Protein backbone atom coordinates (compact mmCIF):
# COMPACT_ATOMS: atom_id res chain seq x y z
CA UNK A 1 0.00 0.00 0.00
CA UNK A 2 3.03 2.20 -0.28
CA UNK A 3 3.96 5.23 1.71
CA UNK A 4 0.64 5.59 3.54
CA UNK A 5 0.87 2.25 5.34
CA UNK A 6 4.38 3.12 6.54
CA UNK A 7 3.18 6.60 7.53
CA UNK A 8 0.32 5.09 9.58
CA UNK A 9 2.69 2.78 11.44
CA UNK A 10 5.08 5.64 12.17
CA UNK A 11 2.24 7.96 13.22
CA UNK A 12 0.96 5.32 15.66
CA UNK A 13 4.44 5.03 17.17
CA UNK A 14 4.68 8.82 17.42
CA UNK A 15 1.25 8.95 19.14
CA UNK A 16 2.59 6.65 21.85
CA UNK A 17 5.68 8.83 22.32
CA UNK A 18 3.64 12.03 22.54
CA UNK A 19 1.14 10.36 24.90
CA UNK A 20 4.00 9.41 27.21
CA UNK A 21 5.18 13.01 27.17
CA UNK A 22 1.70 14.25 28.11
CA UNK A 23 1.29 11.63 30.82
CA UNK A 24 4.58 12.69 32.42
CA UNK A 25 3.96 16.43 32.40
CA UNK A 26 4.37 16.62 36.18
CA UNK A 27 7.12 13.99 36.60
CA UNK A 28 10.29 15.65 37.88
CA UNK A 29 13.24 15.12 35.57
CA UNK A 30 11.17 13.64 32.74
CA UNK A 31 12.68 14.46 29.35
CA UNK A 32 10.14 14.96 26.53
CA UNK A 33 10.95 12.89 23.44
CA UNK A 34 9.85 12.97 19.82
CA UNK A 35 10.91 11.75 16.41
CA UNK A 36 11.81 13.58 13.23
CA UNK A 37 8.92 12.26 11.16
CA UNK A 38 10.33 13.33 7.78
CA UNK A 39 13.74 11.79 8.50
CA UNK A 40 12.14 8.55 9.69
CA UNK A 41 9.98 8.35 6.56
CA UNK A 42 13.10 8.83 4.41
CA UNK A 43 14.81 6.06 6.36
CA UNK A 44 11.84 3.77 5.80
CA UNK A 45 11.62 4.66 2.11
CA UNK A 46 15.31 3.90 1.60
CA UNK A 47 14.72 0.44 3.02
CA UNK A 48 11.26 -0.23 1.60
CA UNK A 49 11.66 -4.01 1.86
CA UNK A 50 11.33 -3.84 5.63
CA UNK A 51 8.27 -2.75 7.52
CA UNK A 52 8.66 -0.23 10.35
CA UNK A 53 8.09 -2.80 13.09
CA UNK A 54 10.96 -4.98 11.88
CA UNK A 55 13.58 -2.23 12.04
CA UNK A 56 15.29 -0.83 15.08
CA UNK A 57 12.45 1.65 15.57
CA UNK A 58 12.37 5.39 15.26
CA UNK A 59 15.29 7.53 16.30
CA UNK A 60 14.03 9.21 19.45
CA UNK A 61 15.29 12.69 20.11
CA UNK A 62 14.97 14.89 23.15
CA UNK A 63 12.72 17.91 22.78
CA UNK A 64 14.41 21.20 23.65
CA UNK A 65 12.07 23.27 25.84
CA UNK A 66 11.53 26.98 25.33
CA UNK A 67 11.09 27.47 29.09
CA UNK A 68 12.86 24.75 31.11
CA UNK A 69 11.26 23.81 34.42
CA UNK A 70 13.25 23.96 37.65
CA UNK A 71 12.57 20.28 38.35
CA UNK A 72 14.25 19.23 35.08
CA UNK A 73 11.02 18.27 33.32
CA UNK A 74 11.06 19.37 29.67
CA UNK A 75 7.39 18.68 28.84
CA UNK A 76 5.55 21.80 27.72
CA UNK A 77 1.85 21.02 27.71
CA UNK A 78 0.87 23.37 24.88
CA UNK A 79 3.66 22.08 22.61
CA UNK A 80 2.82 18.44 23.28
CA UNK A 81 -0.91 18.99 22.77
CA UNK A 82 -0.29 20.78 19.47
CA UNK A 83 2.06 18.06 18.25
CA UNK A 84 -0.38 15.33 19.29
CA UNK A 85 -3.27 17.07 17.50
CA UNK A 86 -1.26 17.57 14.32
CA UNK A 87 -0.11 13.95 14.39
CA UNK A 88 -3.74 12.80 14.80
CA UNK A 89 -4.85 14.91 11.82
CA UNK A 90 -1.99 13.60 9.68
CA UNK A 91 -2.89 10.04 10.73
CA UNK A 92 -6.46 10.62 9.59
CA UNK A 93 -5.23 12.00 6.25
CA UNK A 94 -3.11 8.91 5.59
CA UNK A 95 -6.01 6.69 6.61
CA UNK A 96 -8.29 8.53 4.16
CA UNK A 97 -5.80 8.00 1.33
CA UNK A 98 -5.58 4.29 2.14
CA UNK A 99 -9.38 4.00 2.20
CA UNK A 100 -9.58 5.67 -1.22
CA UNK A 101 -6.97 3.25 -2.55
CA UNK A 102 -8.88 0.24 -1.22
CA UNK A 103 -12.13 1.59 -2.65
CA UNK A 104 -10.48 1.97 -6.06
CA UNK A 105 -9.08 -1.56 -5.92
CA UNK A 106 -12.48 -2.94 -4.93
CA UNK A 107 -14.14 -1.17 -7.85
CA UNK A 108 -11.49 -2.50 -10.24
CA UNK A 109 -12.02 -6.05 -8.99
CA UNK A 110 -15.80 -5.71 -9.34
CA UNK A 111 -15.36 -4.30 -12.84
CA UNK A 112 -16.92 -0.91 -12.16
UniProtKB/TrEMBL annotation:
Q: Which family does it belong to?
A: Belongs to the flagella basal body rod proteins family.
Q: Which GO terms describe its cellular component?
A: bacterial-type flagellum basal body, rod
Species this chain originates from: Metapseudomonas resinovorans NBRC 106553
Subunit notes for this chain? The basal body constitutes a major portion of the flagellar organelle and consists of a number of rings mounted on a central rod.
Q: Which residues form the signal peptide?
A: none
User: What's a BP term from Gene Ontology annotated to this protein?
Assistant: bacterial-type flagellum-dependent cell motility
Tell me which InterPro entries the record gives. Answer: Flag_bb_rod_N (IPR001444), Flagellar_basal_body_rod_CS (IPR019776), FlgB (IPR006300)
Cellular localization per UniProt: Bacterial flagellum basal body
Flagellar basal body rod protein N-terminal domain mapped to chain residues: 3-31
Per its record, how is this protein called by name?
Flagellar basal body rod protein FlgB
Its function, per the record, reads: Structural component of flagellum, the bacterial motility apparatus. Part of the rod structure of flagellar basal body.
User: What are the entry keywords?
Assistant: Bacterial flagellum, Cell projection, Cilium, Flagellum
Amino acid sequence: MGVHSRALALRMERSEILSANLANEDTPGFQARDIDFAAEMQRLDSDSHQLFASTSGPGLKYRVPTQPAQDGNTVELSVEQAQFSRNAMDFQTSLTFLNMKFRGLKQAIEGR
